[in-house]
Amino acid sequence: MNDLQVSAVVLSFNRREELAYSLGRLQEVTGVSLEIIVVDNGSKDGSAEMVAAEFPRVRLLALPENIGVAAYNRGFFQARGQFILILDDDSFPAPDALEKMVELFNADPDIGLVAFDVRSFDHYDRKSEQKEPLSLETAPPSYLLGFNGAGAGVRKEILDQVGGYPEEFFLYWNEQDLAMRILAAGRRIAYSAAIVAYHRYAPKNRDSRRGPFFYTRNLFWIFWKHLPWPDLVRRSLRLGLLCCYHSLAQLTTVYLQALAAALFRAPDIFRRRRALKPELARRFRIPMGLSFILFR
Amino acid sequence: MASVLIIRSVSLQQLDNTIKQVQSVFPGSSIDLLTHEHALEQCRKYAGLRRVIPYEHSKDFSPLRPAGNLPEKHYDAVIVPFSNISGAGFLNVLLFALRLRPKRIYSGNLAGTVTPLSKMRIALRLLASLICWPLALGVFLILAPPSILWLSVSALYGRLRKRKT
User: Fold this and answer.
1) What's the ipTM?
2) Which of A100, A226, A290, B146 has its CA 20 to 30 A from that of A244?
């Protein structure tokens, strides 16, 4: 019998101050036995050194370079808890969140993943003052088709069964890919407003090509990996047309580059294809527009 | 008391900032929030909102899919938050807002700042869009045949590789 209940896997990349703050907050968690694993994605700002010096009880996996979300899988593999808590380096759970998460998992073996209510970090104090604490009775679970990777709990056995994040994605849409595999395995994704995580939301009005590129390329791959053929054809054509339109409307080549990058690795992606059953695929609301609102 | 409608066109984390800004720009107003059904539960957590209203459609906000369940016939202000500077990609939401025939339409940027947006500017965006679509269709028709051929070959290759393994 494994006594360790939760392994928190935190991905870190060049956010030393935020990481230190989040790890400090993680120490305030109550009601569960917890190990913390930090996977550092080759940070250049001394994040890994800070963890080693200031948090000696945290297990540190320092990778030599940034390998994107694949780094999470290194942490998942090392985790010894029954449940894995997925966090960013700038997110942390509310002190009682993990206890409630474990309670929810134990109440229903069909739940494969618990999606946290991820709230803006900046409102942490204000919200905690304003709101009465919710419980699983006052905020019973509802069921979702996706989750936010800045705060989610997943059964270790499910990850062993369906695999971790898609390493080929590097960044973005990786949560949806994992969610689709969990649902295809017959498990559910539960959400309760009582289970809260906080995420530092630091909006900057700046140009960015990274977001639109990875969002667009990976969305094609989501379609090709998971959708039944009629859906795949229809949605791929529509997304291709939208790439052409938004390239012209926003005067950028980033969407066409993403399309080309998606096509370039198409043989590899189709090799990984495991199509969802049509009745499950129909339930997904995939917001295609998301790719086209990130270019500043 | 001014009536304000926020259309949830952005993430919940950005909405945290937007609601705070709207409350300071329209003090004492009654604020409603229109959101897709899947985010209803999360949005109900916000303090200071009069009502959280589910959008009756699962697809994107569109002037062709109006909301029939709004408590106000014409709002004093409708807020459309953008997740970028320019508002690129939000034309559908702006046209949806226009169809609600509010007195004023406002945009909210990434940091939550709320600024008025004239109906003329929305009309100009629509015009630019109408010019881009035929051009985009032309580009698409050039790119589509080789892409489809490549995808078909890739899919066949993927199937063969899976059989082998």
Assistant:
1) 0.84
2) A226
